[in-house]
């Protein structure tokens, strides 16, 4: 059994100023299907949090509950301290939402659609902001074309600009880059990171694209069949799975075989393997700190020393299989 690190949310946690989203015992059933089961989760202000999980795991249902677009069967949800069921309109003003399939008025241009959203939100004097957003999502060239001529990826980019027009303090994105080309993805990820760094925006995104999530998210939650089976940073989850063992990458100048002999002798070192110019040292967590000193004392010059953590896809597969077997 893998320790999931999933603890119930503290009661009344949403009143604390550092929590943007709090979910406490959320269950959502559709007839016989339980889409989300006893979910407890907190997303902190200024955090980028990734929801991961296979099709049908319950990610979209959770997001719709946060936006007041569907009601919990039981449990309690708060967004910026507000109850989405009762204050959906207020939440809509402060939360930008990018659904997986974005719809716009097809006969209006991208720019006109953004203007329309701004007006709906009571914002005036937004022309410069709209120009900037179109540039940030890479749509300046198509700003004055009707959205009926946009590709799916272009609509998705416009969806992100549209959610940002109202200057939200929380952004919720469902598969934000699924139709966007790799170069566009890098641009969008950079933008999300900048918005967090510069404006302290809280970001919740769902994705299947694990490398992307690994690159951008501070913490991730892994969903399987309506349950959140693990929460933490990629490094924390990786450490939890490794059961107190670590792989260290070591690079030394000169006599590599002699370095292998030094490492093999150390307490807590289980195996030393070669991978190109590097040595991979499988050792107990406590042994990691002794490697560098031992090598230097034996006269080796250390060129590289780094803890190797699991990639998110490895972590995901492990938790996924644990819960479905
Ligand atoms: N309106 C609905 N009516 C009935 N069942 C639904 C409804 N919405 C979702 N479900 C079911 O709830 C479960 C969770 O669906 P949900 O869309 O939340 O998953 P997801 O993790 O977002 O999946 P995907 O990655 O495919 O978008 C699925 O079994 C789905 O069939």
TrEMBL record:
Keywords: ATP-binding, Nucleotide-binding, Transport. InterPro entries: AAA+_ATPase, ABC_transporter-like_ATP-bd, P-loop_NTPase. Signal peptide: none annotated. Residues 21-250 form the ABC transporter domain. GO terms for molecular function: ATP binding; ATP hydrolysis activity. It comes from the Bacteria. Belongs to the ABC transporter superfamily. This is ABC-2 type transport system ATP-binding protein. It comes from Thermostaphylospora chromogena. The lineage of its organism: Bacteria, Bacillati, Actinomycetota, Actinomycetes, Streptosporangiales.
């Amino acid at each position: 059994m893998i320790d999931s690190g999933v603890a119930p949310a503290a009661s009344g946690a949403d009143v604390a100023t550092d929590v943007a989203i709090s979910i406490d015992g959320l269950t959502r059933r559709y007839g016989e299907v339980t889409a989300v089961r006893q979910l407890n989760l907190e997303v902190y202000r200024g955090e980028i949090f990734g929801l991961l999980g296979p099709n049908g795991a319950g990610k979209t249902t959770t997001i719709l509950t946060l936006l007041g677009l569907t009601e919990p069967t039981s449990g309690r949800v708060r967004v910026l301290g507000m109850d989405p069921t009762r204050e959906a309109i207020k939440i809509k003003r402060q939360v930008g939402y990018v659904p997986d399939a974005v719809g716009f008025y097809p006969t209006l241009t991208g720019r006109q659609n953004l203007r329309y959203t701004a007006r709906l939100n009571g914002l005036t004097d937004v022309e410069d902001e709209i120009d900037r957003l179109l540039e940030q999502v890479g749509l300046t060239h198509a700003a004055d074309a009707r959205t009926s001529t946009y590709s799916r990826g272009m609509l998705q980019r416009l969806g992100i600009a549209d959610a940002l027009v109202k200057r939200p303090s929380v952004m919720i994105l469902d598969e934000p880059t699924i139709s966007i080309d790799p170069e566009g993805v890098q641009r969008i990820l950079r933008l999300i990171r900048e918005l967090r760094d510069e404006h302290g925006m809280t970001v919740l995104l769902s994705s299947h694209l694990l490398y992307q999530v690994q690159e951008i998210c501070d913490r991730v939650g892994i969903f399987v069949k309506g349950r959140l089976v693990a929460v933490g940073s990629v490094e924390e989850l990786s450490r939890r799975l490794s059961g107190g063992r670590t792989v260290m990458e070591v690079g030394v100048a000169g006599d590599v075989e002699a370095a292998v002999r030094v490492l093999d002798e150390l307490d807590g070192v289980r195996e030393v393997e070669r991978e190109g110019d590097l040595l991979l040292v499988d050792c107990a967590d406590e042994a990691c700190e002794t490697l560098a000193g031992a090598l230097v004392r034996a006269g080796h010059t250390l060129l590289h020393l780094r803890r190797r953590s699991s990639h998110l896809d490895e972590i995901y597969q492990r938790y996924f299989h644990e819960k479905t077997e």
